[in-house]
Amino acid sequence: MLIKSSEFFKNLPPKKCIECGQEMEEQHECYGNKCNECLQVVYK
User: Would you kindly state where each structural domain of the chain is located, as residue ranges?
Assistant: First the structure.
């Protein structure tokens, strides 16, 4: 049985950073796998 792609993405588990294990707040289907802290992103 096929499901809608929107349902598939909605049911994915929260994404976790591969370096520290923290849950990431971004979209689960994105390609990034490190959180902002591990990437050392600075917001101004």
Answer: 13-44
The whole model's pTM is what? 0.59
The predicted-structure confidence for 1-44, as pLDDT tens digits, reads as follows 788 988 988 888 888 999 999 998 776 567 888 888 898 877 76
Q: How far apart are CA 9 and CA 25, in angstroms?
A: 15
CB hemisphere CA count around 13 (13 angstroms): 3
Instruction: For the beta carbon of residue 40, count every other beta carbon within 10 angstroms.
Output: 7
Distances (CA, A) of 14 to 2, 19, 41, 42: 22, 15, 21, 23
